[in-house]
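Q: Got a minute? One more chain.
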Amino acid sequence: MEKKVAKALLEIQAVFLRPDEPFTWASGIKSPIYCDNRLILTSPKQREVVEHAIAETVKREYPEAEVLMGTSTAGIAHAAIAASILDMPMGYVRGSAKDHGRQNKIEGRLNAGQKVVVIEDLISTGGSVIDVVDALREAGAEVLGIVSIFTYGMQKGLDRLAAANVKNVSLTNLDAVAAEAAESGYIKAEDVARLLKFRDNPSDESWITAQ
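A: Always. Here it is, folded:
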């Protein structure tokens, strides 16, 4: 599955690799990779691969799941499509509570004690998805874990998820994408080590000049 999803993301450049011309993140960090999983939604063939992979992962890893909750905003559509495949209810968690009406942070019906799986498109440092998990737990839900489409596998993210005592299963990851990209000739074989060096320490820019 990792390889199949990695190939799908590369085909539509939802994951875009550019080790020789790094992107600059808002933090100022130089990155060889840019990820925009919203492109999955406008690519029917790849969308089918990803959404069925999400559904299959929920069934395999979290068989007791009763409801899917998407992260706002990127995880909402993926949660909705996977929930339709699984014939399950879904909702989503806002980044912050509404300032009008019922001032909801969680949208959709959620009963205390329900077993929830969070659907996320991308995990880097893990901060935003942990906020979602915390909100669901505060509402009385039992969060079984997360299904994410892609993860960088950064140590900071792994540590945060472990500290929050939440399981994450990603469809694919930077290692799998880098390997698939090299195999298909999208990047040079020697670039794989550069990508993984970035993954291991994003603030260390020595990967840029590494050959």
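A: The beta strands are 15-17, 23-24, 30-31, 33-35, 67-71, 90-93, 106-107, 115-123, 142-151, 168-173.
Q: Perfect, thanks.
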